[in-house]
Write a structure and sequence with these properties.
The protein contains eight helices and twelve strands. By secondary structure, it is α/β, with parallel strands linked by helices. The strands form three sheets. The chain has an eight-stranded mixed beta sheet. A two-stranded antiparallel sheet has the order 1-2. A two-stranded antiparallel ribbon has the order 11-12. The chain is globular, with a radius of gyration of 17 Å. About 2% of the residues have low confidence. It is an enzyme of class 2 (transferase).
């Protein structure tokens, strides 16, 4: 992904100061996130460029969309991207670590939707760039800290949505259940029909209900996208 600004249908993302560039995971999560209960308050943890918060501002009339970013450059970039958008009055970015934010906010009104494309570390991943490594490295926000914090900030009727490497799915589900969060919906993502499942999109709530599970395949062949993927992201990408 280049340093260049990324133009979506209804907003533009500048990303030259962000370690984590726009990638498929963020777009998938922002498009997949459940808005069936029309949340009034949304929190995007580790917003990076501000992508997911902006996607949710486009998709929902929620009056309060808060975003959180620990990296100073990324925080400043997200603020700029919010201000340049049509929804600047509904988007607010905090510059803080997640644990500090939880400490500060846990006695306030709870969020009806919490969403996070968490920084995770891939074993095959090396980079000379320290801020990119920090953005990529799970030590920046371990899953256990993420899930515990979410359990303190989420409205009793609320939902938590995330995307993680598929190989972490069992561990993540077990962790979530320790904090009273149960899976509602899981969509497992493959690059194409023959490739292994790479990502899991997960939706949690505090209620134990029948789990919906499905699969999403992104491409039929290189740059030839499946109808399911196109339908999911068509409101965002200019060209598909």
């Amino acid at each position: 992904m280049s340093e260049k600004a990324f133009q979506f249908k209804e907003f533009k993302i500048e990303q030259d100061r962000c370690a984590m560039k726009i990638g498929t995971d963020g777009v998938l999560l922002g498009a997949w996130a459940s808005l069936e209960h029309q949340p009034d308050s949304i929190l995007d943890i580790g917003t990076g460029t501000g992508l997911i918060a902006l996607m949710l501002a486009q998709r929902s009339p929620a009056l309060l969309i808060d975003a959180l970013e620990i990296d100073e450059d990324a925080y400043e970039q997200a603020v700029d991207n919010f201000e340049q958008s049509n929804w600047g009055d509904r988007l607010f970015c905090y510059h803080a670590a997640f644990d500090e934010f939880v400490e500060e906010m846990q006695d306030e009104e709870k969020y009806e939707l919490i969403i996070s494309n968490p920084p995770f570390y891939a074993e095959d991943y090396t980079s000379e760039n320290a801020s990119r490594n920090k953005a990529r490295f799970a030590e920046a926000l371990p899953f256990s800290e993420l899930v515990e914090g979410v359990s303190k900030l989420l409205h009793p009727e609320g939902e938590f949505n995330t995307i993680i490497p598929h190989k972490e799915e069992k561990y993540f589900l077990a962790l979530a259940s320790e904090f009273g969060l149960f899976p509602k919906k899981i969509t497992r993502v493959r690059g194409n029909e023959t490739s292994a499942i790479k990502r899991s999109l997960l939706s949690f709530s505090f209620k134990e209900i029948d789990l919906q599970e499905n699969e999403l395949i992104i491409e039929i062949s290189r740059h030839n996208y499946t109808e399911a993927y196109k339908n999911l992201v068509k409101d965002f990408y200019l060209k598909l």
